[in-house]
Each structure stands twice: as structure tokens, then as C-alpha cells.
Amino acid sequence: MNKTVLHCSVLLSTMLLIVGCSSTKKEDRYRMMSGSDLLQEGRSSLDGGSYKESIERFDVIEARFPQGNYAEQAKLNKIYAYYLNRDHKEALQEADNFIKLYPNHPHVDYAWYMKGLVNFDKARSIIDKFLPPDHTKVDQKQLTDSMEAFLVILDKYPNSVYAEDAAKRVIYLRNTLAQSEIHIANFYMQRKAYVGAANRAQYVIDNYDGSPAVQEALLIQVKAYRALGLENMANDRLRILQKNYPNYAGLKSL
After folding, report:
1. CA 149, CA 170: separation in Å to the nearest integer?
2. Is there a contact between 221 and 198 (Cβ–Cβ < 8 Å)?
3. In which band, very low, low, confident or very high, does the pLDDT at 33 lie, cut at 50, 70 and 90?
4. Keywords in UniProt for this one (predicted)?
């Protein structure tokens, strides 16, 4: 055998032996630790920014203590660890699994909150790239999924510590989704697709009541109905706009 090849083979074998011994020592150490100690180590790694290491410890807890409080807490901690490590898919999977396994758990509201937060951050990472926000880039599904999770908290867990923040995020999400629809309606107006523009505006009025986008939706309808020769409908929308939003700057364009 070539000496160089022989040397490499010996070196590789030695490295594999070292890695194997290291893994064995780590497994033996974990085997000697209590669930409480493992949970504490996982939290310490999480606090220290070693997210993958913390996930590894929480996995060991689930494997060694599959039933009971340790496994439940490990699952909750893993959601946050994956979130901080920007492993969005895994974080959502862990949140969904926890909700399915423990629908009546006293901290299931946290799983719902994290589910909303992960989708919220995924969508915001796109929106925040554009100043002002380019609503053609909005992923409506992520925003809708996020809002639905936060709404579960407000509906089922109104006294949750996460309820106040969830409510604020719902307002932001509704406004963003409504403005995205307005963007599409204006796109139709520019291309003289007036029926499509009026319908999109109506969708905003029907689904995002109270959103600032409603006044712009009414304005679009006035212009669209006028362009279609539907003066009665245009005047009806104008009266609603003037009555409810007398100070709206867009009225000057009519």
C-alpha cells in the first residue's frame, strides 16, 4: 500500500475513533443527568445563544422522559430555540405538534403565540426590505396564518400574558392585508379594469372594517363607478365617504 494512502487511512481511523469516543462520552454524560439538570443545561445554552446545542439537549429530554412535565417543557423550549435560530419551518412544526398533543395544556397559548410570531416575522422580513412597503411583495398567506394564530389567543385565551401583544399585531396585520388589497385595486384602476377595482375595494370594506384602508376603498369605488357610468352608486359611496371620513384628504381629488 502506498505510504501516503496508509498514513491518510490511519489518520482517518484515528479521527473517527476520537469522534466516536466524544459522542459516547456525551451520551454517557446525558444518561447520568436528571431531567431537571438537562432542562437547565438546555436553557443555559439557549440563553447563551447556542441554539443548536440547546435543541440537542431538549431532544435528549424527550427521548429519555417522553411522558410528563420535562418533555412538555422541552417541546415548548424547542419552539423558541428553532425560532431564534431562524429555523422557521421547524419552529412551526414544533408549535403545531405541541398544540395537537396538548390542546388543554396551561401553556398552549404560548405555542399559539409562537406560531403567530414565526409567520409574522417571516412576512415582515420581506415587507421591511422596502421603504415604503411594497405591497406587491406581501405574502398574504403568511400574514393570514399569523393573524389567525393571534386571533385564537384573543378568542380562547383573553387573559393570556400574550393577549395584549397579540391584539396589537392583529391590528397591524389587518391594516397591512387591507392595504395590500388597495394596492391591487389601484393596479386595476390604472389599467381601467373598473369592475375589478370596485370589487377589490368592496372586499376591503367587507373584511377590514375599521382599517384606514376603508376610506381609500370608498374613494376607489367612487372613481370606478363614475368611470363605468354608474352615477347613483358613485354618489352613494361618496355620501358614505363624506359622512364617515369628512377630513380625508382624498376627497379633494373628487
Report:
1. 9
2. yes
3. confident
4. Cell outer membrane, Lipoprotein, Membrane, Palmitate, Signal
